[in-house]
Amino acid sequence: MKAGKDKVVALHYTLSVDGAQVESSHDRNEPLWILLGHGQLIPGLEKALEDHEAGDAVKATIAPEDGYGERREGQIQRVPKKYFQDAKHLKPGMATVLALKEGGHRAVTVHKVGMSTVDVDLNHPMAGKTLDFDVTLQEVREATKEELEHGHAHPDGVAEH
After folding, report:
1. Domains in the chain, please, with CATH?
2. d(CA 54, CA 74)
3. At residue 161, does pLDDT exceed 60?
4. CA angle, 43 as apex, 11 and 71 as ends, to 5°?
5. What are the contacts of 144-147 at 24+ separation with CB within 8 A?
6. Rounded Cα distance, 157 and 149, in Å
């Protein structure tokens, strides 16, 4: 079966930027489960996976415009510490996750830490970077009705959230 919209893929990946490994699913010893066509992957990687099958190895170089976008100036914002899970350990230059008032999360980079606030760069930490992915597809299957309704994949044998 070929990967594409509304298909579930289990994959292992390694992400490198400028020749240095940034992260890898191999560190967790579990594949990443994705429902394709539902915004869970950056557009360039999703496109690179289309029409591949289980067992395929895919190397993809993703330009910023197909990844996390170009960096934009003037994206520093001051945020109360309560919106960070572990605010007392934040240091300038660290990538972290900001909890949004309206729900959800956003990856940001710490710019400055104050007594009760944190100045963050709202650009995604990977914005403006060319991303090199080395991906191996472990499984490709049809999405279940429940997965399509929820908008994300459920790893085999895991129905709970």
Report:
1. 7-68+127-150 (3.10.50.40), 76-121 (2.40.10.330)
2. 43
3. no
4. 115
5. 147/8, 147/35
6. 17
